[in-house]
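tool=predict chain=A
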Amino acid sequence: MPAVFVVIWSTGFIVAKYGLPYAPPLTFLAIRYFLSIVCFLVWIVLARAAWPRTRAQWGHLAVTGLLMHAGYLGGIWSAMKAGMGSGLTALIVGLQPVLTALWVSWMSSGDAGNAQARVSPRQWAGLAFGLGGLLLVVSRKFGTGQEVSALTLACTVFALFCITAGTLYQKRFVQPTDVRTANAIQLAAALVVTLPLALFETEAINWNVHFLGAMAWSVLALTLGGSSLLYLLIQRGAATAVTSLLYLVPPTTALMAWALFGESITTATILGTALTALGVSLVVRPVKPPPAL
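tool=predict ok
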């Protein structure tokens, strides 16, 4: 499941790059959410899947939908529409494991009996490596008028915080629920927010085979497959352990973008990605308890 999730999740950045020339970002996402809801509803009816029983769970699922679909995908697609490459976008949001691990450590720091909850010197070093690697890649492109601008950087950082907050919120508040009904509720909440914003977009949709192919993959593979796998992984594992999988996404995405779109992989990109991956691994690796006396 983790390996399949990494591959599917990496294709999300490629699909955005592939489909954005033919539709505005929020309009594409609104159509994606609607079609995904229809597919889930058919699946729910056929399987007679159970819906959450309490209003509180419906509310918690709606919040995660706003964060992990509307906020995260909206930020990524807007950044890439404005010119940021898929590899760099994946690298920036790939810092999610660092933020997740530090948040969990900080929230648990008051527990004096839990040594693993504290931010260790190794984790601080990992944070420094991760940020250093990101800056190595971003600094080369900032101010060139191509990938990195104030707008694209703001959109990707917004997406980063949304997916991090959504993951932590789901792990903390969402009780075990059928993945199909949970996704339907999350997507409905995302659609309610995204659709009104999409109405302000003036670019017309080019209904060609490229657009339809990107939409089909987005609905069937990314939403029904990738989002469902992420939901299951979060429910079954610790938040930091699950998000640690995401540090494999940037190099996977960079290779796909190089093969499909000819996006350059420079020495700075390789070193920056390696530093970021090293930093993330240092942060999320479990702290070994001291040996017993």
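The radius of gyration is 19 Å. The chain has one domain: 2-284.
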